[in-house]
Sequence to fold (181 residues):
Amino acid sequence: MGYDIKTCIGICVDVGGVFPLVIYDSPDFRGNNSIIGGVNFDLRLNRSSTVNFNSGISKIGLFHKTDRVGDIYLYPMMAEIKYNLYRWGDFIPYIAASPGLVLSHVSVKAPGSAAELKTSFTFQAGGGMDIFLTEKLSFYFDARYLMLKPEFEVRSGRSKDNTHLDLSSSTFKFGLRFYFK
Fold:
């Protein structure tokens, strides 16, 4: 199957969930779970390692106590190293780690208020499984931990408050990979 191809280029499309663990250094603020989607480009170096360039989009609701006060849009851009552990028929478990940048946009619903998240560096690590359906097509799923703590600026009238959000979260994704030769 596709695992036997030594070097190749692939494209992936995935969707999944983001589950924020903590969101603010105040117990009054929290985020909700969200959906993440993305497109990835793979460059398989050999049978056990792949370099993956991925990007995506995620929307997280921002709540103050019980009121939704806005939305946070995250646009991660990561460079990943994926290592295949072993082959078990058409099943290939892997581990992965990736540093990257996260661009963001905050939409605040309060009149006269605005908020901004600074672009920040991030890191994620996790593992998953490739299941080859044909020689060039695989289904995959994975679980990861994303470490993300950007600077958060809130402006209301003439006042300005800077703090750090902890948007670190667990992510679960599944998708399809198609390999070209």
In short: The two ends are 13 Å apart (CA to CA). The chain has a mean pLDDT of 81. The chain has no helices and twelve strands. The longest strand covers residues 67-84.
